[in-house]
Specification:
With 91 residues, the chain is an all-alpha fold. Helices cover 52% and strands 0% of the residues. The chain starts with 15 loop residues before the first helix and ends with a helix.
Amino acid sequence: MRKGYHKGRPQGALNQTTLATQALLEGEAEALTRKVVELAKNGHPMALRLCLERLLPPRKDRPITFALPQLEGAEDFPQALKAILEAVAQG
């Protein structure tokens, strides 16, 4: 194999479907966005969901609160680990 030769598409290259979609929507983004917002304001559930997901994306993480036992020495770590694992298991 020659140095610098890589199989496949170059990094960052777009596939044909993406390029075709971009060409089709060229100059239409503002009109489409206005239409989706209008539909959402009129109660269209999918348009409303689309708008809300863009304004407030779903969280991928969520802090959890739990009681961690007092750690005074190495012998306390198994209890602390148990508390952490139970909290994670409960979601």
